[in-house]
Amino acid sequence: MTLKRILICLTGVVAGVVNGMLGAGSGNIMVPALEKYGLEERVSHATSVFIVFFCCVSSTALYSLNGKLEVSDALTYVIYGLPGAILGTVVLPRVNRKFLRRIFSIFIVFAGIKMIFR
Question: Which strand (E) or helix (H) includes residue 57?
């Protein structure tokens, strides 16, 4: 196994752990990693969503089995989150790469600061 393959596997494990512990924040790990491994920025975002989807499905199943999921509360967010996700998917190809990188960086910094002071 090559060093690159090992690093990709480790990144996946870290993203899965972060997802299980903190929610879908593993995209903050996956997007930069996917770019580092050679994917174009927009492709990295889309690929990250695909990866995070499966992390979320497995985390959701385990939280549900352990009685930690409040489906009725979650559905309210899902109803409004789906149109937002569709809008984001439509807008992404039209966003300037430099602007996208700045927005993503600001989001990561904001999320980090918020977590530090929680």
Answer: helix 41-65
User: How many residues appear in the chain?
Assistant: 118
Calculate the alpha carbon distances from 117 to 35, 41, 110, 112 in Å.
29, 30, 11, 9
Question: 58: phi > 0 → left, psi -120 to 50 → alpha, else beta; which?
Answer: alpha
String of DSSP letters for 61-116: HHHHHTT---HHHHHHHHHHHHHHHHHHHHHGGGS-HHHHHHHHHHHHHHHHHHHH
Q: Considering the entire predicted model, what is its pTM?
A: 0.69
23 φψ region: left (φ > 0), alpha (ψ -120 to 50), beta (else): left
Q: 62-100 pLDDT, tens per residue? A: 889 999 988 888 898 899 999 998 998 899 889 898 998
